[in-house]
Amino acid sequence: MYRDPEAASPGAPTRDVLLVSAIITVSLSVTVVLCSLCHWCQRKLGKRYKNSLETVGTPDSGRGRSEKKAIKLPAGGKAVNTAPVPGQTPHDESDRRTEPRSSVSDLVNSLTSEMLMLSPGSEEDEAHEGCSRENLGRIQFSVGYNFQESTLTVKIMKAQELPAKDFSGTSDPFVKIYLLPDKKHKLETKVKRKNLNPHWNETFLFEGFPYEKVVQRVLYLQVLDYDRFSRNDPIGEVSIPLNKVDLTQMQTFWKDLKPCSDGSGSRGELLLSLCYNPSANSIIVNIIKARNLKAMDIGGTSDPYVKVWLMYKDKRVEKKKTVTMKRNLNPIFNESFAFDIPTEKLRETTIIITVMDKDKLSRNDVIGKIYLSWKSGPGEVKHWKDMIARPRQPVAQWHQLKA
Fold it and tell me: What residue spans carry the region label Disordered (predicted)?
């Protein structure tokens, strides 16, 4: 019986089956190759993405180091300020690099924008920081030691962004210089009138100081606001142990001012109410009570009373005061005072409330102050605006006494 040689045997695959099998095999091979290429591409893209992030970095990464770097004075030369200009962010070469346009580059740019928004220099973060810590400004000074003459030289150069301590929205700053622990012998700069960015450029000499004793001292600078009618208000302080400074040549520093240690303790709080009557053009100030006042007398108590000054621009218009409460750190006054204030003068008006300690044998001591106006601190401004928003209604609020 004749059989066709190309005819399939019962157990052998047909030609069509073999062709399909070959196509499937080739497809699987191509798929494996493509997957391998895909993984390789992902690794390459991931590596470039990581390098892009390392190149961009955070915009403020070098800010702290540059501010803390000392500025050395070359012999016979002028001081060269290498500190960054306030308000400017240091630029890096990596900021000028451009990336090819791609989805990864777009993602890096997006992440960089988010980092800029969340960086320490962002407005949102600065606003949050301003709520937690008051900005007291900073001061620039130089220090060095002359071994031949056994003299320590301190130069007070300038300060920047000092807070306003006066009701006029400015300050009259000057600097006291101490070598702690000695507080009896001090030197002072001149007073710079109505200046929040003063330049002193004054040099002070501590003569006859052996180097062995100098390195045991702490240079202490205290910035104060000069007050003609009462005690000077402390603005901030800086202290630097001289054993941590290379005194072989003059060095210049920028230091942030910190709250003064002699004024950091609580001075107590005062509860008062304000009531504005626009038809009568008057404000009624009610001194209600105080609590946890600072003890100013040797016996651990105080004899408090309250002075209320009405100020218009730079002039003192009217003063009133409460009775004195003997030996009482939690006095209750409940005394009201009315002041005539035309509506058009409200924005130029300040009410200064001073809690005093009565002393028969010496000058009365200031326990603490409160400035109420459009230009005061956040708590004071809130009270002032609440008073305007609720006419003819007493608006009461606790206030922390300040130095």
Answer: 53-106
